[in-house]
Amino acid sequence: MAYVANYAADAPERALVDATPGDVLLEFGANWCGHCQGAQQAIAAALQAHPALPHLKIEDGPGRRLGRSFRVKLWPTLILLRDGQEIGRVVRPGSEMEIAAILAGLTAG
């Protein structure tokens, strides 16, 4: 399954993210964030239809450059990239349907 449970403290460099071929879902937040915790069930459910989609779950906060480079202000923020270019974004998703909407153009599996 594509879903990742915990936010990684180490973030890749923006140049590496921009150079990543294909589709990837970035999720910015923090393990202690109540909004992030509340969205996890919806995120996991939406990603079940896309088990091959890489899911990078990145810890964000002060001094975290990757989140700032994507203008992340609220958590969780999910950003769908294709070949390093943003093709969809959802901020503080309240339902699986909000997440599924940005993943709708992807091929399942």
SSE map:
Layout: H1 14-18, E1 23-29, H2 34-47, E2 55-59, H3 65-69, E3 77-82, E4 85-91, H4 96-103
Parallel strand pairs: 1-2
Antiparallel strand pairs: 1-3, 3-4
Helix pairs in contact: 2-4
Q: Low-confidence segments, ≥5 residues, pLDDT <50?
A: none
* Mean of pLDDT: 94
Q: How many angstroms separate the termini?
A: 9 Å
Class by alpha and beta content: alpha+beta
Named at the architecture level, the CATH assignment is: 3-Layer(aba) Sandwich
How are strands sequenced across the largest beta sheet?
2-1-3-4
In what range is the share of β-strand residues? 15-25%
What is the count of β-strands? 4
**CATH homology superfamily:** Glutaredoxin
Could you estimate the helical fraction of the residues in percent? 25-40%
Overall outline: globular
Number of DSSP helical runs = 4
Order of helices and strands: HEHEHEEH
User: What is the rounded Rg?
Assistant: 13 Å
Largest sheet: 4 strands, mixed
Instruction: Supply the number of structural domains.
Output: 1
CATH topology: Glutaredoxin
